[in-house]
Amino acid sequence: MDRDARIEATIPALRRFAFSLLRDRHAADDLVQDSLERALGSWHLRRAEGDLKAWLFTILYNTHIDGRRREARRARLLGEIAGLAEQATPQDAPDHAVQFTEVLRHLDALPEEQRAILLLVGVEGLGYEETARVLGVPVGTVMSRLSRGRERLRRLTEEGGDTPAAGARLRVVG
Amino acid sequence: MTDLRDQPPIGEDDLHAYVDERLDAARLAMVRAWLEQHPEAAARVRAFTAQRDALRAALAPRAAEPIPARLRVAHVRAGLRARRLRQWRMAAAAVLLLLTGAGAGWLAHGNLASGGVPGAPPPMAEAAEAHRIFAAGARQPSQAVASAAEDLATWLAGQLDEPVVVPDLLAAGFRPRDAHLLPTAEGPAVQVTYERIGSDTRLSFYMRPVPDRPADKLRCTDHPGGRVTYYWFDGRRGYAVTATLPRSELRGIAFLAEREVRAGPKPPPAEQLIARAETPRVCIG
């Protein structure tokens, strides 16, 4: 029960991270559910005791990447079949229940690996090394992406307005 | 600023660690002092911090929501258990199918009954053969559906590079439905499914290389659930006929199959069934 309680204590953060990646409430909760199933199914593979939060984030991120690959394959297939190269993606389906603040719109313009780092470090409060483990990249890569992501977001914010165009968003997806 | 001589110079990493409040006290003091001297960098740092706060604020409602029931650990775990049970059942069913269809069970049983076959293959010997059949150079599918015994015989001959008898069991009311190649350590085995015309009754004819076993007469094995297997050896291969049928009936069909196999690739008319079906035989197992 202690274990369950500790997992459940992380669920709000997992949902927030999933939502910030997918920007769709239901898809986000699906992702969290899939990740929890994975986590519970591979509990014995978990390493350090104190690492629970980072471990759960790792599973969620990997599940997300798997899902996105699946989605990309599906979109490509659909595109081939229907001749629709510009297939809609989950990120184009906004969640109307949420007030989109400017910063979230700008965040969309960042490549996903930068976006994930900004969220893990800035919002979820993970350390740089934890973040590196979650994303499976060296700490140096985390630092350089964090730097580039923040700088880019800063410029977008300073330029202001509604510039984050569909083109930028498509780049994120591709 | 004298401190800076002993310490690495302030870098981009320090600025982010400052934003993320991950500097130790000594470094924090240095970075603060440095930022006072560098207003542009200080402005960037302020922007980063504001940006971080904005992200936190924008996403905070997500984390504040109550956890939906489906994400409760107990619920997820229950779902996981149910799924595993389903998967286990499917796996068990697949194994059962394999045993039924391929007649693997009867061979194992037969081997045990005869005190074990010398040189029985180690359990992984099938792997290379499975690869050969299903993966490497599989120009054709490893199974075929056909309406006539001859069609399957033609297909199987192509697969095995030698003529193969697919017994014509029409006289017993069975027609071939499909055929599968299956791996064994000695080479490909063949399983042909027959179905009784006008009913759901299925019957399997199974044939595999058994090079080191002398020719032997027809024998029979009972399996749980009413399945019966008749099998025999001709010095090159082992053959089996399996179905859920009364022994007396299946024995007649097995005689028919044996006769067809012995006659070779040109199957003769199958009228002998009635004449031979009454012959009593010892049933082992």
Secondary structure topology:
The complex is a heterodimer of chains A (174) and B (285).
Chain A: H1 2-22, H2 25-41, H3 52-82, H4 102-107, H5 112-123, H6 128-135, H7 139-159, H8 166-173
Chain B: H1 12-19, H2 25-37, H3 39-64, H4 73-102, H5 104-113, H6 126-134, E1 143-145, H7 149-160, E2 174-182, E3 189-196, E4 202-209, E5 216-222, E6 228-233, E7 237-243, H8 247-263, H9 272-276
Helix pairs in contact in B: 1-3
Please give a structural write-up.
The complex is a heterodimer of chains A (174) and B (285). Chain A contains eight helices and no strands. Chain A has 174 residues and is an all-alpha fold. The radius of gyration of chain A is 17 Å and the shape is globular. Chain A starts with a helix and ends with a helix. Chain B folds into two domains: 2-64, no CATH class; 103-276, Phosphorylase Kinase, domain 1 (2-Layer Sandwich), CATH 3.30.200. Chain B has a seven-stranded antiparallel β-sheet, with helices on both faces. In chain B, a hairpin with a 6-residue loop joins strand 2 (174-182) and strand 3 (189-196). Residues 108-123, 136-141 and 267-280 of chain B have low confidence and may be disordered. The interface between A and B is large, with 42 and 35 residues.
